[in-house]
Each structure stands twice: as C-alpha cells, then as structure tokens.
Write the structure tokens for this entry.
Amino acid sequence: MPTPQCNDGIDNDGDSAIDMADPSCSDINDNDETNLFGGTCLDGIDNDADCLTDGSDPDCQAGGTTENNFNAGFCLGGANCSFTNSTVPPAGSIRPGESATLSWTCSNVNTCSIKNDLNNSAVCGNCGDSGNQSVSPVKTTPYTLSCTNAGGPPISESTTVNVNFNPRRCEINPRTGVLECP
C-alpha cells in the first residue's frame, strides 16, 4: 500500500507546503495534498468581483483553486458611494451663472457616470470611483451618480444643486453714481 500524500515527505501539489504543513491535508492518512488555495486563490486579488478574496471566497474553499464565480451575489451590499455638492448647507445655493462642485467617493465599483436629471444629459461618462466635477446649472437641478459592479444591478446616489433666483436689489450709489448690486 502506497504512503498517503499527506505523510510521504513530498510536496505533491507544488505549493511549498509538505504533508501536514499543507493546509489541504486533513490528517496523515489523507491521500490528496491538492492545494485548496492555488491558482487565483492565493494572489490577494478579488478575481471574480464578488468582494471576496482568496480563502474568504467560497470558490477557493472545498477544493477550489480559482475564483471564477461571476454570479456574485455577495457583492451587492459591498458597493457604496457618497455623492454631494457644494450647495448643500451651510452654503445653501448658487446664483445663475455660478458654479457648484459635485463630489463623489465610491468603493467596490467598476464604472461610474453622472447625469443631469432635468434633461437626462451626461455630465461625466466614465467618472472613475472618486472625483469632483464642476457644474453651472441655470436652475435648481438634480444629478444622479450611477455606478456598476460585477455583483449586480447598478447603485445610484442623487444630489441637487440649488440655484437661487432671488433677484439682487441694485441701487445707484449717490456718492459715486455707480450701480451696485450687493
């Protein structure tokens, strides 16, 4: 009877771990030293975009050696974004012709885009997972940040840039004769 792989003094699966030092050996009578965490399961990368890497990924457990489950239901709760603009309190609003800055920071996403919700136009087509974008709406305008991940449907966040239409009260300065609009 041949000596079991987990007791033969040989690195049978080429992972530099021999016999009971190999995490795939359950006991000295185990005859399968096949590396549970080889292939893409030992590279520190989430290769199948399910928000789980290597030994934490079910694909790498129970004998798997490759992260390859692109049916990544695990990741749906992992993607998140923060989307704000410079007119939120305390700033409040801008006047027509002024600019506001849209700012976003996301994690666990592949691509992001921003659209103007009033006319459905793209503000930024491939925005990356974080950044800033200057906008100059002429009236109060909602914007939507939409991001995709391999794990499921897009996630989106919205923010509104408030534009103040209150007209300025302009007066002619009696001393200088100049029109002043505070």
Summary: The longest strand covers residues 152-161.
